[in-house]
Amino acid sequence: MNPDQSELNENKQPLLAHLVELRSRLIKTMIMITLLFVIFYLFADNIYNFLVQPYANAVEGEEGRRLIFTALHETFFTYIRVALFAALFISLPFLLIQLWIFVAPGLYKNEKNVVVPYLLATPILFIF
């Protein structure tokens, strides 16, 4: 038996333990997304204006051009979508870390070594 197999046998867990760990990771991720959603909903108007600014600059010279909402509920749902997408975007590194923590114990050492450069580059590229 090679060292990788003995290491894998020592860390074996029953299926129920894996499901419990997966559930806890998903709950942590959902809590993070929910908290960020609430925070970003408070600033949804500012985020929306920031996202629409390039379009507003492009049509600035044309008389009477502006964005309108054609239904009463469109503003609310637009801000909900903006807050949700912002929360998902910002929480994506946290989600990927939780996924890695869940998957990493099941990988062999050489498989982990292949993934480590991507794990280091991902947050840096995400920030850029």
Reported for the largest beta sheet, the result is: none
Q: Overall mean pLDDT score? A: 85
Helix content: over 70%
Spatial extent as radius of gyration: 22 Å
Spell the H/E element sequence: HHHHH
Using the alpha-carbon principal axes, give the shape.
Answer: elongated
Strand content: under 5%
Describe this structure in words.
This protein has 128 residues and is an all-alpha fold. It has one domain (14-127). The protein has helices at 3-10, 15-42, 44-58, 74-103, 109-127. Helix 2 (15-42) runs antiparallel to helix 4 and helix 3 (44-58) packs across helix 4 (74-103). The model has no long low-confidence stretch (mean pLDDT 85).
Task: Provide tags for this entry.
128 residues, 5 helices, 78% helix, mainly alpha, 0% strand
Task: Summarize the helices and strands and which ones pair or pack.
Elements: H1 3-10, H2 15-42, H3 44-58, H4 74-103, H5 109-127
Helix pairs in contact: 2-4, 3-4
In short:
With 128 residues, the protein is mainly α. The protein has helices at residues 3-10, 15-42, 44-58, 74-103, 109-127. The protein is elongated.
